[in-house]
Specification:
By secondary structure, the protein is α/β, with parallel strands linked by helices. The chain has nine helices and nine strands. The strands form two sheets. Strands 5-6-7-3-8-9 form a six-stranded mixed sheet, sandwiched between helices. The protein has a three-stranded antiparallel sheet with strand order 2-1-4, with helices on one face. A hairpin with a 2-residue loop joins β8 and β9. Bound molecules: adenosine-5'-triphosphate. Keywords: ATP-binding, Nucleotide-binding, Transport. GO terms for molecular function: ATP binding. It holds the Pfam family ABC_tran.
Length: about 240
């Protein structure tokens, strides 16, 4: 078997993102390697979602560049993004999950078979044949995760993946994320949940006002945050 060429490292070289005249992110200079789970933390509006979208090519930098090891058309096809509020199509949960395989040329039968495996893994068997338009917010997030993983992406971006989930579902989803990281999927995840960050992160990217204030190993970040902003954030203060 021929090994797929690596997408990593990805290098951000003096990258800034603007909305109209306001810089919302940057300047960023950072490099990410192939493995692990990076958790993005920071107060509301810090730039976490914009950062994820930038890496996935959904937001263009006005200054600087984001350089993956492969050209964009190969890079983004090997990535999946789970949005904070996932969009679903008005068809069954099973067909929603099979959809990315079918657009890549799989037959309906094969798509549905593989969808069923992911339906079991995310715990959606009870709604597999329901219209996705009527499932709960938590079920929708699980659907989105299964739909993202069915293509076996090299990189998975997750924006607040457990906002609508109860404790048991959050635990199941986190176990799944840990399993895919172990299997070699590179994960970037934004969360407000300090506990989730501790449980999942190999390293933490702490962002405030669009700037990276810290990029540290998970334990180092929580035990010895280097900046006053991160210390306040971890204490639960409101950061302005
Ligand atoms: N489409 C947009 N148009 C204008 N400004 C935007 C847009 N999207 C984001 N912004 C601004 O960019 C900044 C970063 O927003 P972003 O959503 O990336 O932050 P965040 O850290 O993900 O926030 P939250 O934790 O609230 O989701 C904010 O000031 C936000 O208001």
């Amino acid at each position: 078997m021929v090994e797929a060429e690596a997408l990593f490292p990805v290098v951000l070289d003096d990258v800034s993102v603007y909305r109209k005249q306001t810089r919302v992110l940057g300047p960023l200079n950072i490099r990410f390697e192939q493995t692990g789970c990076t958790v993005l933390m920071g107060p509301n509006g810090a730039g976490k979602t914009t950062f994820l979208r930038l890496l996935h090519g959904l937001v263009r930098p006005r200054e600087g560049k984001v350089v993956w090891a492969l050209p964009p058309e190969q890079t983004y096809a090997r990535q999946s993004f789970v949005f904070q509020t996932p969009i679903v199509m008005r068809r069954t949960v099973q067909d929603n999950i099979a959809y990315p395989l079918i657009v890549r040329g799989a037959g309906k039968r094969q798509g549905r078979q593989q969808a069923d495996e992911w339906i079991d893994r995310v715990g959606l068997a009870h709604v597999a044949h329901k219209d996705a338009g009527v499932i709960s917010g938590g079920e929708r997030q699980k659907l989105a995760l299964a739909r993202a993983l069915i293509t076996a992406p090299d990189v998975l971006f997750l924006d607040e993946p457990s906002t609508n989930l109860d404790g048991a579902s959050t635990r199941d989803i986190e176990a799944l994320i840990q399993a895919v990281v172990r299997d070699g999927t590179r994960v970037f995840l934004a969360t407000h949940d300090l506990g989730q960050a501790r449980r999942l992160a190999d390293n933490i990217l702490f962002i405030h006002h669009g700037a990276i204030l810290e990029h540290a190993e998970c334990d180092a970040f929580f035990d010895h945050p280097a900046t006053p902003e991160a210390r306040s954030f971890l204490r639960g203060d409101i950061l302005l």
